[in-house]
């Protein structure tokens, strides 16, 4: 079996587009000549976002204060367990450039590190640890606060492999039962017919991509799944039946 090389640091321009599935189908037909499926094209992604009880980190991000940081634990396991491989990730943004730092660990180790400060041998990346410590100084009492899960289809440039396009669908969130081992249930983040297409490039868009986006009059949108989930959770009645 081919061993996937794990990248731990990212710097790229990331733009999101909220699309109807019919529009996505037309875009995919036009981009077909320039994109190929990623090595691991189809995946199930589940995330836990860490914040304090007042959700100060995501409120600062929504208000564009600081580096709009997010601290999350991500797994690609279809049915996560306490021993599943996870990534502890810090995301930051400066203007349109996104930065991501991450390490590979397991669910139990990450939660123990964030909540109790206990770092085992898997919590060894110094850049990640420094970023986490800075966040803990600003936001006391970080703990698991939101689960967001979705299906992802990933593509990359047939010539320039650093060009990536991802499509996220069936996005669900919950601010209760915040444990990756509890499954993918929750509230829908978007309407059933909507998806999120994200384009990730090291610099400017390739000419072919700009031409296709301009043809359909598409403009990128400032959109955060965690930010949207937080705002939607405030609108929900706490005792409403869970989906």
From TrEMBL:
Coiled-coil regions listed in the entry: none
A Pfam family this chain is assigned to: VTC
GO biological process: polyphosphate biosynthetic process
InterPro entries: CYTH-like_dom_sf (IPR033469), VTC_domain (IPR018966), VTC_sf (IPR042267)
Domain VTC, residue spans: 12-231
Name the record gives this protein: VTC domain-containing protein
